[in-house]
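Dear colleague,

Following up on Tuesday's group meeting, I ran the structure prediction for the two-component complex that the binding team flagged. I've pasted the input sequences exactly as they went in, so you can double-check that nothing got truncated or mislabelled along the way. The structure tokens for the whole assembly follow below. Feel free to forward this to whoever is handling the docking comparison.

Inputs:
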Amino acid sequence: EAQVTQNPRYLITVTGKKLTVTCSQNMNHEYMSWYRQDPGLGLRQIYYSMNVEVTDKGDVPEGYKVSRKEKRNFPLILESPSPNQTSLYFCASSWGPNQPQHFGDGTRLSIL
Amino acid sequence: SQKIEQNSEALNIQEGKTATLTCNYTNYSPAYLQWYRQDPGRGPVFLLLIRENEKEKRKERLKVTFDTTLKQSLFHITASQPADSATYLCALDNDMRFGAGTRLTVKP
């Protein structure tokens, strides 16, 4: 089954404690991206990757890092999380930046 | 400034009626536009894509129109059912910009 898998689904942590949200897709897609979703603001893109070792900033990259060492994986790293990064995060993959996106089921992060 | 606006945060309709959701945009020139459905606790799911040279696209009970002059897309669900209750998002192909979504509730 084609899917995008994110882990963890839920996480409550404290300010400053580094965390990583993993994302893996099994569709051999070249394009992957991370979004955050906040009430009233919709989905905003954090980072995207056109292919292995190629990443670029989206609209709201501050405070986040990503890496793309393998085609299937695209982890999101918060080196020093802060409360304003409390949000619902989605990973997505597709054949290209403007093609229909396949989304994971989300990771709800709470930073205290 | 660039904006994508979906007509209202919430829309309530009676089962069997046609639901019409609106997506308006300013200062964008998309070549195509996409609609997604999002259920609570789940990621968005792609529904339909319409290109700028297509006036209308249909898929089962769904219909999407795209008017580049008005800078607007309309998303229709005919013969709506309670199972259609969800949040619907539009997205422009300009770096995949999403609207905030409209939460549709279909009452039996």
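The two ends of chain A are 36 Å apart (CA to CA).

Cheers,
M.
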